[in-house]
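job 3f2a | input accepted
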Amino acid sequence: MTTSTSNDAPGTALARLHTLGLALPNVPAPRGAFKPFSRSGQLIFLSGQICEWEGEVKFSGPVGEVHDLQAGQQAAQICALNLLAALQIALDGDLDRVVCCHRVGGFVYATPGYPNVPKVINGASDLFFEVFGERGRHARTAVGVATLPAAASVEVEAIFEVC
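job 3f2a | predicted structure (163 res):
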């Protein structure tokens, strides 16, 4: 994770993604009776996104058995990219309207007793910091679970404040 605060300048969220060699996917269709985001005033609540890319779950099965820490972090990053894609839609294409990320909730399909659940979710947290600088730092919960939708290895949700 970078410690530079130069990421705080507005007008560059998508450029930072491009510099990182990343792009936003199409927002995955919800796998249940919910929508990708809900807005209340300046807060946007983003529904949990699994590590699905363009219709394909890229990491399935438990972290700590089927996948190692690095793969888990990659899965969390995909979740974060899906969240940013939904956020971009909520903001009519302008991610530079982000004031800050307030909270991230991360869920890891992990083997019982897997000790690195928080490190897995760093894959999402680090991306938000890389894209938004200090505006991307957030409060967070990271939980190991017995299973996730489509046997995905990771799911992440978030709350952003926007202008």
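job 3f2a | The longest helix spans residues 69-90.
job 3f2a | closed
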